[in-house]
Fold each of these.
Amino acid sequence: MILEIFNYSLTAILIGICGAWIFLIKSIIDSFRLTPYLDKFENTTESNPKVSVILPARNEEEFINKCLDSLIDQDYKNYEIIVIDDSSEDDTQKIIFQYAEKHSKVIPVIARPKPVGWMGKNWACMEGYKKATGDLLLFTDADTKHSKNVISLAVGHLVSSNLDALSAIPKMITFDFWTKITLPMISTFLHSRFSALNVNNPAKKTGYFFGSFFIIKNEAYQNVGMHEGVKHEIIEDGALGKKVKDAGHKMKMVRGEHLIDAVWARDRTTLWNALKRLMIPLYLQSGKIAIGIFFAVIFLLFVPFPIFALSASIQSEEMSAKILCISAAITSLLIYTGAIIEAKIGLHLRLIHALFAPLGSLVVVLGFLSGLLQAKRNESVMWRGRTYSMKDHTQNSISI
């Protein structure tokens, strides 16, 4: 009797998870189908406003050459590239000055030491902004590669649509096995909150930027307090995007996977830190809600797999056990479906990486758990080679 109650209770939970995944899969498909493209718009402008590309770089000797080459080769004429060395410990600064000597568009900046209470990238962006002379500001990352016409498209799209800010979804470049199997599961999780359809809907409060590519009017940037307004935010691009939306500025998110390549995680260590970085801001706002989200992620992404494996291996004749097994199988199949859609359409990964969904989900869960425990203990967090004290970085701008 007790076992039957337990089985039916788990079945009820799995049915709820099935419903959530049906809704989520529909949202993912709608997002891919309905999100506008960066290069598909009616160009109604002939203006040529000056663009200041602001490119912070810390220990980027492996990637910055390709990034700068792609920016220097743009077909847009009226722009400058402000490259900020953020206390690099490798040859990043040397590379920046080599490019500046050869190309007049490249303006090198050596960021002053980061003040207490600032995240390093946020400080570097502010240091670069002080040198900017453009009407439009294009923020990007040193591990991002751009197509030849991407600035022209971004300016044309922003001005023709009368926008204050525009962010493009890049193609996420992955290198190692663990990132390839984890990223599809992370993407399905993020679709539940930060999809382009939510960002582009004025009735929704969701605002978000991809740090690898967003362009914003100078006056709008100043109006929301610049990067100083999000100086302690761990996820500064999302926080800045929310500020822009909250301030009533007109913003838009578009697809740019065929025009922009960005690195999400470079190895297992950066993957692990990136997963923790997603959960820590939520806990710093509300520990109870963050813990609730963590358990929701466990059940949505992982729990159906071990339930199915266990119930299938026992092969009980009890009806409740059979119903539980079938429910777990259907739920697991839905999770696989979401992972396959993300891997093939959104991330352009091989199908085999989606088939490791249970392992990828487990990595996500463990990474989120590590982030929660770290935030709960009020310990420091590592990011981009720096250690930040949690008490100095209360998060206010990313809404849960």
Amino acid sequence: MNLQQNQALIAAALTALVAFITYWKCRGEGRSAENSNREFFLAGGGLSWFYIAGSITITNLSTDQLIGMNGNQMALLAWWELAAVAGLTMLAFIFLPIYYRNNCTTVTELLEKKYGDVNIRATIATVFLLGNILIYQPIVLYSGALMMKSMFGLTVPTVLLAAVFGVAGSLYSIFGGLRAAAITDTYSGVLLLGMAMLVVFLSLAAIHWDFSGIPPERLTMLGGPDSPIPWPTLFTGILFIQMFYWSTNQTITQRAMAAPNLREAQKGVMAATAIRLLVVPAIVVIPGIVSYKLFGHLGDAAYGKIVWTVLPTWMSGIFAAAIASAVLAHFTSLLNSSATLYVCDLHEKYIDPNPNVAKLNLISNILFVILAIAIVPIYAGATSIINLVQQLNGLTSMPVLSVFLVALLFRGVDARAAICGLVAGVAFYAFATFVWAPLHYIHMIAITLFFSIGVSLSVNRLAFGNRATWRPARG
């Protein structure tokens, strides 16, 4: 048996072990017909803080983060992770209490209750669903396949590897729902974080902890005007991006809403915050910087190259298993979120209020997997995965956040006015970022948020004759 076969065998065995643990943990959990939505999509409200922390961590941290951030080969990208501490804190102490008080299954359910209009719930759910289908799901599959190819020098078509990940990941979502996704996330996360930290230390050892010869702009935490994160943006768009991503993103918040109570959910979120602060920044930038010193500019191939270089040969299979498990876990989380949005916010509201959730979950997952695999080739030419994702996020993130903030901060706003603010915000950001581009896109993200809120309140007053008033602080 040759070396690559041994590595593949180790990877397959460890990946199968994670799958077996997931099955073992889920095997005794039945599903009730009366509460199937909560069982499938909120794990029956039975996730402990440990699984919430693990699931939130790996749902965000996967190959798109490891490859994309290290692919920039500069320390500056650590700001995305450091700023996430603020986003997670807002989720724990501002947004989660509101979701729990309102007994929400999806974040968009809150909008229906605040605006008194089911159509705005469906509109935002559709925006989230399209984001998952067109951006997040195919990028996870693409980056996972790219990682495997760059680590082992494979000549297999990227889309074929992506299809393998897609089909395997869908099995967790189809048969285990959120409980399986969270358990897989957690144990995959333990393996991935451990291996990623090992890569950090081995990378530093490879250059004898000596950063000399690396251009200063790749080591600084104060980005210039042409950098991916100019330093003034730390006080504008980045904080609002974190608020949107961690506090109103269905894929993230769904994990935190699956605890037996608010206190348990907050413990899980704060544990994820500690991991984000103490562990994640190092693993998403240091290997890339070391890779620049050793090999020069490699872009998104940098992380796979450094892993292949510094890891002992016999450990490559273990790392491949960590990556494979993380891709499967992340993709499962996205699929489960997409199914939740479709079933709860669209199908039950407009087609059938009492569907067979298991069957509908199966059909929707199969469809979403096929679409994700089909879209993978579109991302093959991206210069930087992470920068592309952040730029595309801005197209809908701030307009959507404006709908949530208007709902939470004001009374007397017509849902149609909020939708007008959403549409105007998307158009404004698209023009100001992809056509005119007067400022860095992160600055434009903050401007877009306030523009969208302004349009919502103006249309509410001028077109519908309503005067918005401040809502009490408890939401």
Amino acid sequence: MNSNHSQASGEPPSAAGTAYPEPVRRLIDELARLPGIGKRSAERMAFHILKARREEAMRLSSAIADVKQQVRQCSICHNLGDADPCAICRDPRRDASTILVVEQPKDVISLEQTGMFRGVYHVLAGHLDPLSGVEVADLTVADLLARVDDPSRNSRGEQVREAILGMNPDLEGDSTALYLADELSRRKVKVTRLARGLPAGSQLEYASAAVLAEAIQGRRPLDDPGE
């Protein structure tokens, strides 16, 4: 009865009572490596793939292969794209004199969804965190400063006039912003930050489009303490 109930409900059989074929075990092991996926969730996903039509499973396999083979890092801004330079850096409608500096590619996606920013981006690939061993050399800070110093290194060869610091509003993000503000100010670039409508300690990817839009519009000089 338990066996019939398990089959009817679509649940995978218990690992304790089944010796999985080697390909299934490997699939479960790899799925379990994904963030937030435990062993039981990996088993359910593996059995879903097994029950799916072959063409559906192959589409998933092809999508994973395409991500690894076709998606690359833009040599200018370090955002992800399927070409180099990326679509944003190539777009003549974007104001390449204004760079919004963020920590991760997912932050670019969140900000683009607001439709409010028409400049270009620079992705740091993280934030300064000495306690975890993340130093300046581990980020793309050198390439950001090179874009400011040498217009030929910037999108479409334009001179950078403003850098907007869009780090997450937490301790590490603030420390990174202060470091960058010091370096950029020496280069006579206008330095602003996203407005503090963003909740302290949160991350850009979790902010709503309305909050991010207000943060872009209300940006202020970094030395302005705000309210």
Amino acid sequence: MNLQRNFPLKNLNTFGIEAYANFFIELNNSDQIIEFLENSEYRNQPLLILGGGSNLLFANDFEGIVLKINNKGIVVVSEDEDFVIVKAFAGEVWLEFVDYCVEKNWGGIENLALIPGNVGSCPVQNIGAYGVEVKDTLFEIDAFRISDGQKRTFKNSECNFGYRNSIFKQELKNQYIIEAVSFKLRKKPILNRTYQALEREIQILGIENPTIKDLSEIICKIRREKLPDPEEIGNAGSFFKNPTINSENFKKLISEFPNIAYFKQSDGSFKLAAAWLIEQCRWKGSRFGDAGVHKNQALVLVNYGNAKGTEIVELAKNIQKSVLENFRVHIEMEVNIV
């Protein structure tokens, strides 16, 4: 366990923002996590737990310890004729874990292919795409409490999952280090093809009986066409959440904007497509110095090279303001600002 001072973070965040941490420590296994938590000299330092660095934006240097969790491993916990419970440690790359499960024909997370980040970060944000969220297959989470190093297992029902939300973003924010995440996956997969873009691509390719591997490959293709590669243009994927409004406000809005993109929810509310709202406000493809909105996807803010985190934040706030002025709807930032 090596403590490094004044550590550069540019290569550890997908936005590619230049920032520094007072201290940086990389933990490669569970024993090192325990050793860190037992060391009293670190107790009073602000702590930032870093996974793949794909869902945060550094607006400032970090005046504390950045902790990089890099423990690896994939283990089958139990299985029967229909299901397998597989545990992946927090430092596993999410895309590689999805690919591993797809190759085994374990179904449930194939719609989440190509989402950036590590396994340990996925339940914090309750990542989701193409009609599927992590909460749909997550079985339990093993985590260490930062205050005393005690280990706890969280069942799915204890995580308070919501849309891009969980107990680890709310009540227990910055209180636990996730060690590993277990998933309950189907040995006889049931494909989720509810999104029109998926079904349309399946028809174009002429696949009569698609497998989860077919679905995963199609989703990767669609994502690559729509979203910029962080290796080429700094970004953190979708920057804003899709806002949800009640039926009364929706009726008023659709009377003014009959072409508005929306998804009706089971509780009678309506989820609006934030990308549509932003695009109507003419932000798509705009650029201000090295900070901008991607030309193919209005939800994605980008760093073209040397943008500061504060410039990205200012752009995001201006987008929020214009959407509110034009549609009376607040769009919430999905990315964590540090």
